Amino acid sequence: MVVKSRILTPAQLDLAYLALFFGQRVNELVLEHLLRSGFDRARESHGYLIQHLIDAERTITELAKRMEVSQQAASKSVAELVRLGTLEIVPMKDRRAKRIRLSKRGWEAVQSARQERTRLDRRLMEAIGEKAHKKARASLLSCLEELGGLERILDRRVQDANGAIPDGGRKPRSRRKEHAGC
Fold first, then answer.
1. Among residues 173, 174, 50, 164, which one has the least CA distance to residue 111?
2. Cα(34)–Cα(115) distance, rounded to whole angstroms?
3. What's the CA gap between 169 and 182, in Å, rounded?
4. What pTM did the predictor assign?
5. Which residues contact 88 (CB under 8 A, 6 or more apart)?
6. Which residue range forms the structural domain that includes residue 60?
7. 175 lies in a domain?
8. Is 148 part of a structural domain of the chain?
9. Contacts by residues 118-124 (CB-CB < 8 Å, ≥ 24 positions apart)
10. Residue partners of 87: CB distance under 8 A and separation at least 6
């Protein structure tokens, strides 16, 4: 059986796909910036681990639990980032337990990525105007709140599409008021 599909133009895509593709493009640009800035082995997937170390040092067990992966998977990712100089291991009194933290180079990569995101955000504001920029942000935030995605952002538990974190039984909050653009 042959299934004919119609060709969509970008203007025909739904809001979720547009937001996804927009976010992917920004991530590509940030990664390109990191590579040009000397972080030549940076990968987008590294950010899914690094986000858990922004606020605190953590053990492999804590990282695995937060990322909802096995300790072996977390350990493998940590070992890669230690080899790259992005993370460092901090010995504890109990020699079996080790805390993981961002190294100086890791913090430099975080700062570089943040600066590039800020630069891109300003570029977008200049391109579409401050009012449209604020409205777009507000619309996307309303949509995330409606569908239950804000908690993951606030908890720094965002994962890529291959390892999406389930809502843990939490239902999306339903809001009765109108959502701009949602």
1. 50
2. 10
3. 24
4. 0.77
5. 82, 100, 101, 102, 103, 106
6. 15-160
7. no
8. yes
9. 120/26, 120/29, 120/30
10. 53, 78, 81, 100, 101, 102, 103, 106
Residues in the chain, total: 182
The CATH number assigned to the domain holding 98 equals: 1.10.10.10
Q: What was the pLDDT predicted at 160?
A: 65
What pLDDT score was predicted for residue 178?
41
Show pLDDT as tens, one digit a residue, over the chain (182 residues): 676 667 778 888 899 999 999 999 999 999 999 999 999 899 998 998 999 999 999 999 999 999 989 999 999 999 999 999 999 999 888 877 789 999 999 999 999 999 999 999 999 999 999 999 999 999 999 999 898 878 888 777 776 655 533 333 333 333 334 444 44
- The answer to the question of residue 167 being in a domain is no
Number of compact structural domains in the chain = 1
